[in-house]
Amino acid sequence: xxxxxxxxxxxxxxxxxxxxxxxxxxxxxxxxxxxxxxxxxxxxxxxxxxxxxxxxxxxxxxxxxxxxxxxxxxxxxxxxxxxxxxxxxxxxxxxxxxxxxxxxxxxxxxxxxxxxxxxxxxxxxxxxxxxxxxxxxxxxxxxxxxxxxxxxxxxxxxxxxxxx
Length: 164
Ligand code: FES
What we know:
Layout: H1 8-13, H2 18-45, E1 56-58, E2 69-73, E3 78-82, E4 88-92, E5 103-105, E6 110-112, E7 119-120, E8 126-128, E9 137-142, E10 148-156
Antiparallel strand pairs: 1-10, 2-3, 3-4, 4-9, 5-6, 6-7, 7-8, 9-10
Bound molecules: FE2/S2 (inorganic) cluster.
FE2/S2 (inorganic) cluster binds next to loops.
């Protein structure tokens, strides 16, 4: 009916009427807006959770650590120390000065930082600066299978050890 109002020559040039074209474009715009609204609503309603990796890691069994040993777990940047008396504890290998990775020096019996020369004993206490604080110590436990679990999210004092 509307097509009849458009001059004949224009109808031949445009097989789609202006109204029909505007209906399609308008419908498409409404569809895009509605889809966007649904997506935004779904994002708003879904929980905004940041999944972080676990702070716990498995460190093998007691047999991996002979008495009197200091073993670096490079991946986790943690020393597993087994005292001559048999108990274990975990010491961070991250220097408390500026965060360099420290090294165990068995010939000196110390943990040394290659960056600015700080030294620590194997309990993590500062022997030489500029490190301002002892190395962090982490909680340890045994699971049901006898695996040692270290929790880097649980910082403990020097008095906390894993008795085996
Ligand atoms: S980062 Fe270890 S002494 Fe500076």
